[in-house]
Amino acid sequence: xxxxxxxxxxxxxxxxxxxxxxxxxxxxxxxxxxxxxxxxxxxxxxxxxxxxxxxxxxxxxxxxxxxxxxxxxxxxxxxxxxxxxxxxxxxxxxxxxxxxxxxxxxxxxxxxxxxxxxxxxxxxxxxxxxxxxxxxxxxxxxxxxxxxxxxxxxxxxxxxxxxxxxxxxxxxxxxxxxxxxxxxxxxxxxxxxxxxxxxxxxxxxxxxxxxxxxxxxxxxxxxxxxxxxxxxxxxxxxxxxxxxxxxxxxxxxxxxxxxxxxxxxxxxxxxxxxxxxxxxxxxxxxxxxxxxxxxxxxxxxxxxxxxxxxxxxxxxxxxxxxxxxxxxxxxxxxxxxxxxxxxxxxxxxxxxxxxxxxxxxxxxxxxxxxxxxxxxxxxxxxxxxxxxxxxxxxxxxxxxxxxxxxxxxxxxxxxxxxxxxxxxxxxxxxxxxxxxxxxxxxxxxxxxx
Length: 449
Known about the structure:
alpha+beta
């Protein structure tokens, strides 16, 4: 039997795929739970539901488990695809002399027995031809899907599958999903919600979790990239790429806890929930059993507490000690199994600090403007002052001083050359004197002292 000829994927007409509609197509799967358990991939405007990525072959004949010399054939791969209302299941396994394949065709039918099982076969071309022979009678259907050949039809050569094999995804029992990005630049909130696993029926009051997931900065060593409408991340320290968001586990766990605890959608309740979630992951039952409680005032915990209270540490460093105080207080609450509360007290304390700092900055701004005004000649209001008249008690530029003190009693006024800087001692007043011994500038009071 002749081997099938691989053809490049056909380009379907129409605009960019509507991801929501594609996802909805999977709802027709005969076992809806598979959509929750599997790994949904959008390929060529259609859904692929990978139930198992399988593992990379590690035996003595690796070349038999290669496609075109570069793609790995997974062992234990299982995928479900949709063909209009029908389902097609494709599976692989390790055989005696090489990989073996099986196809199950499940047409939509009221008769449960109406399906076709193509037995395990080591010849991919043979089992593929058997399958095509069965479906060729459906002439009213669009057959272009199968022009790509089995590898591309079932997604074996897709980046998601090949990367999962390199990472040993099935071995780690991690089946996450892909964060899609329709505009190719930055995934929006809806795409983050689908990726994290939103349930519209139960998550209406905890939608803030998805917003927090989207807005939380990546760890310093991670960079985000988009390829073919799919998002992946690279750890710059190891150059390792992954389809799994660095914060996926954190927010997935937060979502599950919130579904159980059902916090009220109010800022106070949300803050209490997030604080308890943070600290309960530190003061675990293992730590309680061993009595070895970890340090709570770590850099990462301070940063997380800053996110919860909306503190910009870079521009508000004076609030760090309040955040540490909050960590100590709430850490004791969680350790002693008391309810996290009083968040309003710490929030108000931070507001008071902000008010004090704002008042100080405002006073300093007024003083700076006053000082800047003093640096300008009092007579012309244009040129920098270089002389101070001890009798007039004003600053002048050279020209204005000479003009005003050229005749009359002002000729005898004593003048002082000044460098218009701040006093080196008090750093508040304009310097009027230069000390030869110190080589510093001083205001009158500091110079006399």
